[in-house]
Every structure is written in C-alpha cells, then in structure tokens.
C-alpha cells in the first residue's frame, strides 16, 4: 500500500484529502506544522508528499528544500496562492507539481496517481539489475556496497550476505534456523544465536532507531522479515 504524507494546517482540508486518498486505497497521514514535518517525512516510509505552502513553524519552500537533500520521492505543493513566481520557486527547489486551492478531490487523486506511476517508471528504468533501493537504503550486489541516505555503511561479509538475502525476499518470514543454514551453511560452527547477533549489528548500522527498525523486523516466535 502506498503511503502519502499530508503536510497541512487546515484540518478540514487535510481530512478531506486523507479521506479521498484512503477511498482510493492509499494510506494517508497528516502533520500540521513545519517543526515536525521534515522528521516525519524522512522517517515515515512515505511514497509521496502533499506539501502546503503556508504552514505554522515553517513554510513549504523551506521544507521542500530540506527534503530534497535526502529524498527524491514526489512532492506536490498545495497552496491558496496562484502566483507564477511561487510556482517557479517551488519547481526550482524540487517540487514535482503544484496544485492551487480550491481544487477538486478527484483532480488531487489523479495527480497523486500520475506522479506515483511516473516515479515507479523512473526507478525501474534507472536502477541497474544489481541494485536495490528501499526507502533510503541502497544496496549494490555487484560491488557489495550499502548506503543509507547516500552515506556508505561498512558491513562485514556475513552481515552483507544476510542483509541482501532478506532484502531480495521482502515480506517473507525466515526462521533463524533457515537463515543460519542459508548464510553460514550446514557444516558451519555455531548456532542460531549467531543470526540474532548479526541482525542486531546490521540494525545498529542501517537503522535510524535500531529499537524500532524500519527494514528488518522481528516476527516473534517465527524469525525475521525484511519490510518491503
């Protein structure tokens, strides 16, 4: 399910946008001020952002500029203004589209769908076969390199093997026994606690909050699953 972040301080407009998006099968979240918008946008695994130009504790231009330093997901600016200079400035800071209030909910949904589809096409076209890109995590299988928000993360050989195995099988649960046999081999010395240790080390390196992982999650009583 695609996740949309609505950055909007007008509660009635934000709830209307959310309701129409949810009717169309999206998951939508609302944040009302600039103070929390950037943090939530970067840590919430969103696929698209609806960004109001004028919000408390910041403005859409500043937020767009900050987001574009670390993410390339579609950003649609939403505003009551209809000045060409604002549009030009917004596009210059990396906004993908500009929609002016009042607008029809159907138009908003149509634009959201169009930009999500366009982004998916660009990702499929530009990403080499040996590359995986998941919510700021970039893995190059050929060079065995890992980056989080463009910062290279150094993993041991076993850590990389474990991460890539889970990443190429998203949303599948693997037991510790299965992972130990697959990564270390049946004849290896050790036990399933080795898997636990390596998962913990990987989380410490790639997760913003290892205690609340966004990539490798624990399925209690069953094993581990990479969130696709």
Please provide a written account of the structure.
By secondary structure, this protein is an alpha/beta fold. The chain has two domains: 2-126, Rossmann fold (3-Layer(aba) Sandwich), CATH 3.40.50.2300; 131-226, Winged helix-like DNA-binding domain superfamily/Winged helix DNA-binding domain (Arc Repressor Mutant, subunit A, Orthogonal Bundle). It contains eight helices and 14 strands. It is elongated and about 65 Å long. The mean pLDDT is 86.
Main pleated sheet: 5 strands, parallel
Amino- and carboxy-terminal Cα gap: 10 Å
Low-confidence stretches: none
Please state roughly what percent of the residues sit in beta strands, choosing from under 5%, 5-15%, 15-25%, 25-35%, 35-45% or over 45%: 15-25%
Q: How large is the count of helical segments?
A: 8
Which term fits the overall shape?
elongated
Radius of gyration: 20 Å
**Architecture of the largest domain, CATH level 2?**
3-Layer(aba) Sandwich
As for the number of domains, it is 2
Query: In which order are the strands of the major sheet placed?
Result: 2-1-3-6-7
Keywords for this entry:
8 helices; two-component regulatory system; Rossmann fold; 2 domains; 42% helix; 14 strands; four-stranded antiparallel sheet; five-stranded parallel sheet; alpha/beta; Arc Repressor Mutant, subunit A; elongated
């Amino acid at each position: 399910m695609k996740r949309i972040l609505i950055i909007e301080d007008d509660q009635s407009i934000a709830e209307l946008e959310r309701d129409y998006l949810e009717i169309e099968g999206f998951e939508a979240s609302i944040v009302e001020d600039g103070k929390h918008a950037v943090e939530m946008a970067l840590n919430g695994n969103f696929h698209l952002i609806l960004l109001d130009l004028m919000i408390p504790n910041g403005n859409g231009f500043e937020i767009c500029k900050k987001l574009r330093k670390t993410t390339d997901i579609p950003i649609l600016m939403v505003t009551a203004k209809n000045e060409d200079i604002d549009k030009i400035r917004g596009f210059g800071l990396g906004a993908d589209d500009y929609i002016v209030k009042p607008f029809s909910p159907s138009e908003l949904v149509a634009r959201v769908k169009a930009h999500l589809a366009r982004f998916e096409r660009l990702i499929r076209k530009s990403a080499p076969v040996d590359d995986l890109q998941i919510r700021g995590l970039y893995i190059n299988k050929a060079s065995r390199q890992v980056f989080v928000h463009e910062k290279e993360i150094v993993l041991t050989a076993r850590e990389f093997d474990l991460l890539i195995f889970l990443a190429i099988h998203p949303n599948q649960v693997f037991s510790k026994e299965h992972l130990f046999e697959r990564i270390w081999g049946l004849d290896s010395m050790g036990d399933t606690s080795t898997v636990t240790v390596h998962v913990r080390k990987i989380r410490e390196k790639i997760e913003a909050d290892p205690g609340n992982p966004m990539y490798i999650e624990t399925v209690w009583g069953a094993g581990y699953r990479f969130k696709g």
